[in-house]
Write a structure and sequence with these properties.
Helix content: 25-40%
Number of helices: 19
Shape: globular
Number of domains: 4
Oligomer: single chain
Radius of gyration: 23 Å
Number of strands: 18
Largest sheet: 7 strands, antiparallel
Bound molecules: flavin-adenine dinucleotide
CATH topology of the largest domain: Alpha-Beta Plaits
CATH class of the largest domain: Alpha Beta
Distance between the termini: 57 Å
Strand content: 15-25%
CATH architecture of the largest domain: 2-Layer Sandwich
Length: 519
């Protein structure tokens, strides 16, 4: 293999030969699907302390109206069995009892639905690929579910400007496949790519594995069309990279989790597909070394650095044990995945190998491997991207997604281990270290209120103390919203409430989500 030979030339003979198992064909089909069944998840209205809002209940007359405007039987689902999946979130922590699932095809239909629901005071939850991890895309009580799954047309790919215009229900992986043939990629990517929709990605301001290079969606989204709660179509579509005409209203719909409007069209700036890509997996003895790897990667790989992820040994062992994936490096306390990509294959590989050589010589890392063909690269990425799936197999998952300054980044995981002791089955940390984004997964056999009380609000107080964020990239949804005060000021909270009141005075759009009832 090229990597081993390259290292051998440099006499770094302690790198071991790898045994690659070809896992890539299974990766995409499993990655974004919840491995368990939905039907025994407790109703959110029972599990959580929450009151139903003063909304109307959908009647047969309402359903007949929806059938009329959607003019297709398969676009209005009322069958209880079929609705279970749409009522339950990916993590299986929130389950509602929405009585009807609507699948419009275009903006006009969405507008008619919203106008009708607003007049009737019916609550609506927008739903994309349903891979959200904070219970934002499913009903809490009996909200009407509006799915964008049939709004999945690509409207335009401008190959000169490098822009994409599409409907919100396009699946990320399908967009990526189509764009790749024109040598473009989307400026973001995430493990749920096989199911998540671009509309859901914007609504959650999804981060993911390319953020370290391309920045957040607030920078790369060029235009949004959204339908407001009363059915008004707000056209903020543009494919211009520069547009300073007044307030940038499209930004309101990026990260607002369907509480301000339903995104019905998206324009986004594309990135050029890199010609070369290499991935290294590195073993480290301690977290100080992980930080050194990241800061050296920024310095030495510079514009070639396209991802920097880490996971601890607990997380790696869950992936190995539950998913039977092979960890190609020696057992270590921490693992760092570094991806380098760019226009020159020669430079990409050389830069990554030089970088690793320096780290080994300076004893920052124990060992590392380099994957430089697409099968190996997918296998290495699978170790990182299937973490959540591995944790789901371990039991009920309390999942946290936080931003913290790197100087205290991992301390919280150690701290939680000593606080929770044997109450938790496993406590592991991993995430996008390049973005200062830590995921903490705590598992137990089944949902455990006592354990939850031992974790929350303790974990959020910890984050607040270090001026971090209680939600780095997944949003607040239903399960995190009450902790907003640990990351946002009261004035910011009141301003958000004011915007919500202005755009959705009856509060019918995704109630019980994002903004807490009280500060
Ligand atoms: C295996 C796995 C890996 C993941 N990795 C990452 C990651 O690296 N980074 C990351 O940020 N997230 C990650 N996630 C979380 C999730 O994939 C993202 O939040 C994703 O953006 C959700 O998209 P979706 O289409 O599934 O939206 P849904 O889950 O259906 O909805 C999410 C929210 O958006 C709203 N919404 C959906 N569509 C619209 C629309 N058209 N208009 C208005 N509101 C809408 C919903 O009401 C809900 O509040 C991961 C999830 C899984 C399961």
């Amino acid at each position: 293999m090229a990597n081993v030979q390259a290292f051998a030339k440099r006499s770094l003979y302690y790198l071991k030969q790898l045994q690659w198992r070809c896992l890539s064909s299974t990766v995409l089909s499993h990655m974004s699907k919840s491995p368990l069944l939905f039907d025994n998840v407790e109703l959110a209205s029972n599990r959580y302390d929450i009151q139903r809002g003063n909304f109307a209940k959908a009647t047969q007359q309402d359903i007949n109206y929806f059938k009329d405007i959607l003019s297709s039987q398969s676009a209005v689902i009322t069958d209880a069995e079929e609705l279970i999946g749409s009522n339950t979130d990916w993590l299986q922590v929130v389950r509602g009892s929405g009585p009807v699932l609507l699948k419009p095809e275009n903006t006009e239909q969405v507008s008619k639905i919203m106008q009708y629901c607003n007049n009737r005071n019916l609550a609506v939850v927008p739903q994309g690929g349903k891979t959200g991890l904070v219970g934002g895309g499913v009903p809490v009580f009996d909200e009407i579910i509006l799915s964008t799954s049939r709004m999945n047309n690509v409207i335009d790919v401008d190959k000169i400007s490098g822009t994409l215009v599409c409907q919100p229900g396009c699946i990320l992986q399908e967009l990526e496949d189509r764009l790749n043939s024109d040598n473009f990629i989307l400026p973001y990517d995430l493990g749920a790519r096989g199911s998540c929709h671009i509309g859901g990605n914007l609504s959650t301001n999804a981060g993911g594995i390319r953020l370290v290079r391309y920045g957040s969606l607030h920078g790369s989204v060029l235009g949004v069309e959204a339908v407001l709660a009363d059915g008004t179509v707000l056209d903020c579509m543009s494919t211009c990279r520069k547009d300073n005409t007044g307030y940038d209203l499209k930004q309101l719909f990026i990260g607002s989790e369907g509480t301000l409007g339903i995104i019905t069209k998206v324009a986004i700036a594309l990135a050029q597909k890199p010609r070369a890509q290499c991935v290294a997996l590195i073993g480290c003895n301690n977290f100080e070394n992980v930080k050194q790897v990241f800061s050296s990667a920024r310095k030495d790989l510079c514009e070639y650095l396209s991802a920097c992820e880490f996971m601890d040994s607990k997380i790696m062992s869950l992936v190995e044990n539950h998913l039977k994936l092979t960890n190609p490096v020696q057992t270590s306390s921490f693992y760092v995945l570094i991806e380098a990509s760019g226009s020159s294959e020669q430079y990409c590989k050389t830069a990554l190998l030089d970088f690793l050589e320096t780290l080994i010589e300076s004893k920052v890392i124990k060992e590392g491997i380099v994957a430089d063909n697409s099968v190996q690269i997918k296998d290495v990425w699978a170790l990182r991207e299937r973490v959540l799936e591995a944790c789901q197999h371990d039991g009920y998952v309390f999942k946290y997604d936080v931003s913290l300054p790197l100087r205290v980044f991992y301390n919280i995981v150690d701290d939680l281990r000593s606080r929770l002791g044997s109450q938790a089955k496993s406590i592991g940390g991993y995430g996008h270290i390049g973005d200062g984004n830590l995921h903490i997964n705590i598992t137990c056999e089944e949902y455990n209120k006592q354990l939850e009380k031992a974790i929350e609000p303790y974990i959020f107080e910890w984050i607040g103390k270090y001026k971090g964020s209680v939600s780095a990239e997944h949003g607040m949804g239903f399960i995190k919203r009450k902790y907003m005060n640990y990351s946002k000021s009261e004035a910011a909270y009141n301003t958000m409430k004011g915007i919500k009141q202005l755009l959705d005075p009856k509060g019918i759009l995704n109630p019980y989500k994002t903004i807490p009832d009280q500060y």
